[in-house]
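Checklist before submission:
- one chain only
- standard amino acids only
- sequence pasted in full

Submission:
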Amino acid sequence: MRAFRHRDTTDGQDLPALLWRPGPGHRMISSAVLGGGIGPRSWVLNAQVAHGYTRRDPQAHLAEIAAAAGAAGPGVGMMTAADILTTRASAYDEGAQAVVTAGTGVRGWAATEDAAPDAADAPYRPGTINILVALPVALGDAALVNSVMTVTEAKVQALLDHGLDASGTPTDAVCVAARVPRPGGPVEEFAGPRSLWGARLARAVHEATLRALQQERGGPEEETAALPREGQSPIRRSRPAPSPSSTSPAQTTSSSTIGSVQPSVTWCTAPSANGPTAASR
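Returned file contents:
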């Protein structure tokens, strides 16, 4: 994962962005404003924008940032007003890898009487908890959808373990990258929290989210990294002791190569199921 800077068109600030290019043979499921849905994707962008973001074409804006950074083909673009360099955290669990950037200044519970429909002419509000997960296996369509559910459950668990009374922020985004199924090849049909890969995904997301939240709150700085490119084997290390607010068992290991601790910065100017043992998926 490469860090670079782009010129924000709202107020002219130079702000950071993260770009991951995993190599060919991946398809992704995402809720992102650019490249959302299910399909083959070549890159994932997580761009920081100004708190007073006013552009009404975030898809075009993210595409401009990605193109200026050298990304080509279809991709996924996410936005956040959070500081993506100081809140970025990653975790690795038995092949499942997660990178999270977190900003929880605006947070709450999904079901609330205070919620109101977004006005059609309201400016886009950049998301504040962005989650990227990479799996080294192919997932069926239903498993892809279920992986997003599992990511969300693990995120909420991390928020509660960190002592935050919230299920998220109003504009969180998620992206799960998996291998493209090959004809006659194995395809994982389940990605719920009690399936093999769903459990690994959940632990990685929970750990990465906890670390990102700790860093946002000024906790101890964690080693952060980017997802490895295709063919690059992560180096595993022991999971650090959980924070006092964490109640999850210490099952997660993390990778010191999910990027570099201090990524090289370049500059560009731009004019974002349960498993088969259960009765249901």
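Reviewer check: Residues 57 and 124 are 8 Å apart (CA to CA).
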